[in-house]
Design goal:
Structural class: alpha/beta
CATH architecture: 3-Layer(aba) Sandwich
Number of strands: 6
CATH class: Alpha Beta
CATH superfamily: Decaprenyl diphosphate synthase-like
Bound molecules: farnesyl diphosphate
Radius of gyration: 18 Å
Distance between the termini: 18 Å
Strand content: 5-15%
Strand order of the largest sheet: 3-4-2-1-5-6
Largest sheet: 6 strands, parallel
Helix content: 40-55%
Number of domains: 1
Oligomer: single chain
Shape: globular
Number of helices: 7
Order of helices and strands: EHHEHEHEHHEEH
């Protein structure tokens, strides 16, 4: 029987190279990459995946040319605007993680409204990371935690792994079971470093705009075939 991961995190990569291979500008790759998200969400939910978390824009992505940053931001903004309808239609809850203080106010308000309006939907839980970096998230979390200690709201002795997790942007999400990275690179690029501690990794050469239901199924099948035991005996024990 296929063992389906509850939470899949995806580093969508290769939009630019995919476009270049077709003699098109990089931004065309981003447009097609954004178009691919809805189909993958639907396929994931149909397969039994309950949480999907996409790395859409990293804290490092600001160093791309201004025209590309602007194009990506406006794509993300229009995707999330349109997401109000998609969320309702697909019973999908949407969250955004990352340091949103660098986004313009209108964008932030749209995100807030989308999170609020979709919070009771209990189908797929879609999380999109924008201006996200794992180290930045941990530093923000540590600052918040330190403030709580200084204000007497938290005792140093009560700091635990669970407590620290509760200060991260992903506080309400389970840790990912599976990480997928498209387009051939084999690194984490500062994505969910704390949360991926026990996750399985799956790398594929397929660029994101070509990653559809069939490729997702292959990733889930590879995950399902793995022996997931951390630190226990390989020939016996539970699936922890
Ligand atoms: C990855 O390809 C692309 C990004 C990190 C940019 C933003 C992603 C999108 C616009 C897709 C939309 C996502 C959502 C969730 C709506 P790359 O440019 O790094 O490709 P390359 O490695 O080939 O240059």
């Amino acid at each position: 029987m296929l063992k389906v991961p509850n939470h899949v995190a995806i580093i969508l990569d290769g939009n630019g190279r995919w476009a270049k291979s077709k003699g098109m500008p990089r931004n065309y790759g981003h447009t097609m990459g954004a178009k691919n998200v809805e189909g993958v969400c639907r396929a994931a939910y149909d397969m039994g995946i309950r949480y999907l978390t996409f790395y859409a824009f990293s804290t490092e992505n600001w160093s791309r040319p201004d025209s590309e940053v602007e194009a990506i931001m406006s794509l993300l903004e229009s995707y999330l605007k349109n997401c109000q309808k998609i969320a309702k239609k697909n019973n999908m809850r949407v969250r955004v993680i990352g340091d949103l203080s660098r986004l313009d106010e209108k964008f932030r308000n749209n995100i807030k409204a989308l999170e609020e309006n979709s919070k009771t939907y209990d189908g797929l839980c879609l999380t999109i990371a924008i201006n996200y970096g794992s180290r930045d998230e941990m530093v923000r979390g540590m600052k918040k935690m330190t403030r709580d200690v200084l204000e007497g709201k938290l005792e140093v002795e009560d700091i635990s792994e669970e407590k620290f997790s509760s200060y991260l942007d992903t506080a309400e999400l389970p840790d990912p079971d599976l990480l997928i990275r498209t387009s051939g690179e084999m690194r984490l690029s500062n994505y969910l470093l704390w949360q991926l501690a026990y996750s399985e990794f799956y790398f594929t050469d397929t660029p994101w705009p070509d990653f559809h239901e069939k490729e997702l199924r292959q990733a889930v099948e590879a995950y399902s075939a793995r022996d997931r035991r951390y630190g226990g005996l390989k020939e016996e024990g539970s699936n922890v």
